[in-house]
Structure formats: structure tokens, C-alpha cells
Amino acid sequence: MPQITVDYSEPLADSFDRRGLALALHPLLVEETAATLAACKTRFVRTETAVVGGDEDGHAVVHVRIGLLPGRTAEAKARVTDAAVDLVRRHLKPVAGHVVHISAEVCDLDASYRKATDA
């Protein structure tokens, strides 16, 4: 915990500094949510197709989902999502011919969440 998943559209692959985003997002989560840096895990999922409205051409999507253990206030979650959107903007170069739709959410992990680390 935190469990972070970033979905992003294929056309952004060459213009999106994913590693830079993760390395900026992790310390933010430590500061805002009392997570430990070693516990922050981010995975990136490239999506082939994004459809916005009735159009699949000319649009790209980045969505950041941050799963945290319950207990954070709505205000803290809002600060994290606002900052995540800003960080995506900072780590994404413009892509000609595409409108990029950026979103973020913080979700409470279910009580069944478990973690194991194998060496």
C-alpha cells in the first residue's frame, strides 16, 4: 500500500515519462498519506484504444488510480488526486493531433487486502 495503477493510451507511449511520474508521485503519497516510500508500488497499463464520446480518433486518456488503506479524509484524498493530475501534466509532452483527458481517483482498499514480499 499504496497500490497505484496508471492506465494510458497507446499514442502517449513516447511522450509520457512514466518512471518520472512514479518517482514524483511516491514522495507525495508519503507526505500526504503517511505511507512509507518502500510501500509505494506503481504499475503502468498501456491501452490500445480509447473512445471519448462518440470518437475514438484524436483522443488519449491517462487515469491514475491510487488504492489506500481506509482512514484518509475526503480532503486528503482530494489533495492527492489534484496533485496526481498536476504531476501527469508535468510528465507528459503534448502529442500532436490528440486531446489528452487526465483523471485521478483515490480508492479505499478492501478489508481483504493483503501484501506479501518474496525475495
TrEMBL record:
Pfam families cross-referenced by the UniProt entry: CHMI
Domain of life: Bacteria
GO MF terms held by the record: isomerase activity
Keywords for the protein's UniProt record, in alphabetical order: Isomerase
Protein name: Isomerase
Species per Swiss-Prot/TrEMBL record: Streptomyces flavofungini
